[in-house]
Design goal:
The protein has 8 helices and 5 strands, in the order E-H-E-H-E-H-H-E-H-E-H-H-H. By secondary structure, it is α/β, with parallel strands linked by helices. It has one domain (2-70, 94-214): 3-Layer(aba) Sandwich (Rossmann fold), CATH 3.40.50.620. A 5-stranded parallel beta sheet has the order 3-2-1-4-5, sandwiched between helices. Strand 2, helix 2 (43-55) and strand 3 form a beta-alpha-beta unit. The chain has helices spanning 14-26, 43-55, 65-70, 98-112, 135-149, 164-173, 177-183, 200-213, and strands spanning 3-9, 27-36, 58-63, 117-119, 154-156. The two termini are 29 Å apart. The model has no long low-confidence stretch (mean pLDDT 88). Keywords: ATP-binding, Ligase, Metal-binding, Nucleotide-binding, Queuosine biosynthesis, Zinc. It catalyses: 7-carboxy-7-carbaguanine + NH4(+) + 2 ATP = 7-cyano-7-carbaguanine + 2 AMP + 2 diphosphate + 2 H(+). GO terms for molecular function: ATP binding; ligase activity, forming carbon-nitrogen bonds; zinc ion binding. Pathway: Purine metabolism; 7-cyano-7-deazaguanine biosynthesis.
C-alpha cells in the first residue's frame, strides 16, 4: 500500500528526476517544487516544467532570487568559471545555504499542501564536497523543520548512499532510464541529455552511466 502525499524538490536533473519517479512509485500523491534563484541557465526551470508537465505532476516554481544576490557563484554568475575545489576546498558551483533554504521552503509548501513527506536527491557518495548534501545535515534539518512548524515531516533521500552508476541502475529499475538519459539537465553549461561532456557534472554523469552499462555496479 502506498504512503501519503509527498513533495519532491525538483531541478529537472538526473538525480531529482530519478527521485521523482521513485516518489511516484512510493506515494499516493506527488507534487514537485522548483526554485528560481536566477540561476545561470534558465533552461533548468524550463526542463523541470517540461518533465512535470509530461508526467502530469503538479509543479510549483518559487522565487528565491535573494539567494542569487547573497551567494555569487559559478551557477549564478557568467563571469565565474566552473571549477573543482583546490586543496580540499569547495568547488565554485557551491551555493552557500541553498539546500538549507530550499528544504525549508519545501517544508512550508508541504505544510500548505498537506504533505508529510519531502523527497530530495542529495547524495553523500557523489556530492562534490557540498556540506549541505550530507546525511547528517538532512537529519538535523528534518528535526529542525518538525520543531519549527510542529509537524511530523519525513525527509527521504533515496540516493544518499548511491554512486552515479547505482543511481542509473535505480532509474532503470523504475522504468525511467531512457527518460532520465534524454530529458534531464545535469550539465553546468545548460545542455540537456548528455550535456557538454566536459564540465564536472557531465563527467560524473557519464562515468556513472558507462559503469552501469558495462555492468560495473556494486
Amino acid at each position: 500500500m502506498k504512503k501519503e502525499k509527498a513533495v519532491v524538490v525538483f531541478s529537472g536533473g538526473q538525480d531529482s528526476t530519478t527521485c521523482l519517479f521513485w516518489a511516484m512509485k512510493e506515494f499516493s500523491s506527488v507534487e514537485a517544487v522548483t526554485f528560481d534563484y536566477n540561476q545561470r541557465h534558465r533552461t533548468e526551470i524550463d526542463c523541470a516544467r517540461a518533465i512535470t508537465s509530461e508526467l502530469g505532476i503538479k509543479h510549483h516554481v518559487l522565487d528565491m532570487s535573494l539567494l542569487n544576490q547573497l551567494a555569487p557563484n559559478a551557477l549564478t554568475r557568467e563571469e565565474i568559471a566552473v571549477e573543482d575545489g583546490e586543496e580540499g576546498g569547495l568547488p565554485s558551483t557551491f551555493v552557500p545555504g541553498r539546500n538549507l533554504l530550499f528544504m525549508s521552503f519545501a517544508g512550508v509548501l508541504a505544510s500548505q499542501v498537506q504533505a508529510k513527506h519531502i523527497v530530495t536527491g542529495v547524495c553523500e557518495t557523489d556530492f562534490s564536497g557540498y556540506p549541505d548534501c550530507r546525511d547528517i545535515f538532512v537529519k538535523s534539518l528534518n528535526v529542525t523543520l518538525n520543531l519549527s512548524m510542529d509537524q511530523d515531516f519525513v525527509i527521504h533521500t533515496p540516493l544518499m548512499w548511491l554512486n552515479k552508476a547505482e543511481t542509473w541502475k535505480l532509474a532503470d529499475e523504475l522504468g525511467a532510464l531512457d527518460f532520465v538519459r534524454t530529458k534531464t539537465l545535469t550539465c553546468y553549461n545548460g545542455i540537456i541529455a548528455d550535456g557538454c561532456g566536459v564540465c564536472p557534472a557531465c563527467k560524473l554523469r557519464k562515468k556513472g552511466l558507462d559503469q552501469f552499462l558495462e555492468g560495473d555496479v556494486s
